[in-house]
Amino acid sequence: MLTSTQLKSNPSLFVFLPLFYTVWSDAVLTPSEIATIEGLIESQQWLSADEKTFLRSQVNPASPPSPDDLLSWKEEIKKAADQTTGKSLVDIGFQLVRNHGTISPQLLKEQGVLTNIEATLGFISHEAAYNFQSGKRESVTQQLTTQQTFDIGALEKILDGENAAIIKKVKTILDDPEFRYIDSGNLEIYRAKVLQWAQLLAAQGFGSIAYPKSCGGQDDMAAYFAIMETLSYHDLSLVVKFGVQFGLWGMSVYFLGTEKHHKKYLKDIGTLDLPGCFAMTEIHHGSNVKGVETTATYNHTTKTITVNTPHKNARKEFIGNAALHGHMATVFAKLIVEGKDYGVCAVIVPLRDKKGNTLSGITIEDCGRKMGLNGVDNGKIEFKNVVVPLENLLDRYTQITAEGKFSSPIASDNRRFFTMLGTLVGGRIGIPRAGLSASKSGLAIAIKYGDQRKQFGPEGAPEVPILNYRTHQRRLMPYLANVYALHFSLQYLTHRFLNRKEEEMQEIEALAAGLKSFTTWNATATLQECRECCGGKGYMSENRIDALKNDSDIFTTFEGDNTVLMQLVAKSRLTEFKHEFAHMNLFGILNYVADQAKTKITELNPIVIRNTDEDHLLDPQFHLDAFRYRERNILTSAAKRLKRHIDEGMDSFDAFNVSQHHLVQVGFAYIERIVLEKFIDQIQNTADKNCQAILKKLCALFALNQIDKNKGWYLEQGYLEGVKTKAIRKLLNQLCWDVRQEAVPLVNAFAIPDSLLAAPIATVK
Which CATH code is given to the segment(s) 176-424? Predict the structure, then answer.
């Protein structure tokens, strides 16, 4: 076309070139497009018959332009596009005419008609013109970049809190070349390396830090939890190995034993000179510890205890440190004294001699390769009438008198059992904090990658970072808000546990169970999203997300299955609910009714449930009111449902069974409210105004995202109307857009050393 005699004799024909190129650019010229263009050509009175025939030949589907033709057309059009300030194909066409001649008065009169045809063909004028303009397109998406409005170091101090010194020390140790990651494919080499890492940490005094000073420790449980959380930026097999040895094994001796056990074992446990196990789980009973079948039978004549596994399915299974390294174990078993079953006790049982040989009566089987955590030597343990001295009974709550009788400071079997397990609730604090660190690592990798990785973009303009895309933001930013929210609530839980009073233990246990469940479920979802958001790079082992995903997946069932734990939370809340009403006098009942009425007036009136004002939607009081309303409503309805079933004659066990889904929601509503409250408390206690501002955005994002997730329930209850849920969804998008701009500084505040991320896609400077 460009070399045709018609164009040379009449340069005004160039005005059609941008239209022709655009309709041919998708390689298919439709009948309606042909008819529209042919109609345009016929309507142009200034064209000769030969020129019309020539122009019609350019839109003949039987004779399309060649690839070389289209390429030459595009180059010619681009030259003209860069020379004009016009915003349409017609403007570019007129510039082409100027480049090759002059614009005739007749053509100038047809400018409006040509523009109308452009619209008729379905072109968005400025979009079509952008295809040809070099460097002139400046979309908002292109312009979005990472910025920083707060001091990263100041936010890091807020996150680390009182444990900043020990956290920094652990990160420094882990950054040492001795802790460089190895290929985890060979089980023997990997397990040996994890043991070596644990020994190096023990040499730093980290293993014994929570034990009494008299036993080589520093009596600093807060530091222990901080160490566990920080180690979780490294290899999670190391974290579990560390937790089994110094937490489960050591803490069981510390909390369930008495001074004689502390003096005999704790120092060697803390230095890893005495590696051990925590043998609780049996394959047939799993979460039902009270139903364990292993027996510990007391013989008063010899003052010994015989530990026995009655059948294969009563073996201790999934026991960390058992397959290779453990020399002793805290074994949970039914205590039998004079033929009577006194419930679950804990007994120290030797497994191997100093040379590592398995002792008589002990059978240990390696669990083998797992989905993750293959640096931990999990095993199955079977006991065949293994005899240990009475002094091996951990006797803080379970004792045998000089006369050979059972004794306990707690008379009730149930209360004694739950008190014994309650002293070990620390595991349900360590695991979610480890899961939180895994989530932070995954987000640091995915967000930094998304900030660098460019793909697609406006036609004719450079590609843009994938983190600039709204869907990418909606996938990652809510999880970033979640980890900040959970960080502060886990700090609160840790503080409550460390400063506990006996009468608070039931509440703390429920809080630990719920936060463990919520945090580890969130970790699983976060890491899956991070993997997908990194595409093929996220699937590569060198970028660590695979290890983080596989190693943390078990956290949802470690220390109790999450769904079971959420039911435990619900039962605790129902007990408290029942207790509250049982002790409520007339004045209290009137206050309760008044509060319900107040809620209807202030939160359930037509104005509030439809209020879409941004200040209202961002108001923390609105968020708190919504969370508290949901929690109270679900709890009350669950109590009524259970009561109705039982009043109708249903067995209480069946009543709980048919209400399980409802009970899980009770747990979620309670935990979500706690998490929000603690996030708001942190914001109020943050003096640095810039840090406070970004935390407010993250808190609003967390709160509105949870409300959006539960919008079906809120709509059912009449707490929100559709117009308000739509406004919340719109505001969520905006918050994700805002938080994206500071997402990289926000993950940098985690201060994870590059050597621990070990992800090329996240550590490129």
Answer: 2.40.110.10
